[in-house]
Amino acid sequence: MKYFFSLFLVFGLLQISLGQQVEQKLKELKIELPTVSKPIANYVTANRVGNLIYLSGKGPQNADGSYIKGKLGKDMSIEEGQKAARITGIMLLAALKSEIGDLDKVKSIVKVLGMVNCTPDFESQPMVINGFSNLMVEVFGEKGKHARSAVGVAALPFGMPVEIEMIVEVMP
């Protein structure tokens, strides 16, 4: 019984030390997750099916809740688009945490769809969405690598430069 208790205690301490890895990484990156905004229509922010979390599309928001606006190839540079995609990643992490409670439950970022509001001749959508993808790898390491599509669209809600949705596998 003494052996079992010691093993239980060691396992518990191991879980505590490993249990805050993502939160610690966010602190190191100086990222504070914002409050999750409510859906703007008749849908949910996240839908769980088994161990998969399907997150609705999010866009980059300012601290006041307004959306960053811009069109790639017209009034926004690739670097500005990457920054908007990174901010969108932070918004999605906040939504994910709101849904699962602890980001250390993430097993992998499975699939990402990145939509870029751009002119018809703009061809660097993947470079823009790299702002999001790079963040996922910074935060989750190898678990952050994902399958991805990056497409150009004529317009996005509220004039946003990017909208991103993702599928995440979590621990049961």
From TrEMBL:
InterPro entries to which the protein is assigned, alphabetical: Endoribo_LPSP/chorism_mut-like (IPR013813), RutC-like_sf (IPR035959)
Pfam families attached to this UniProt entry: YjgF_endoribonc (PF14588)
UniProt feature coiled coil, ranges: none
Superkingdom: Bacteria
Residue ranges of every copy of the Endoribonuclease L-PSP/chorismate mutase-like domain listed in the record: 25-157
Record protein name field: RidA family protein
Species for this entry: Lacihabitans lacunae
Lineage start: Bacteria, Pseudomonadati, Bacteroidota, Cytophagia, Cytophagales
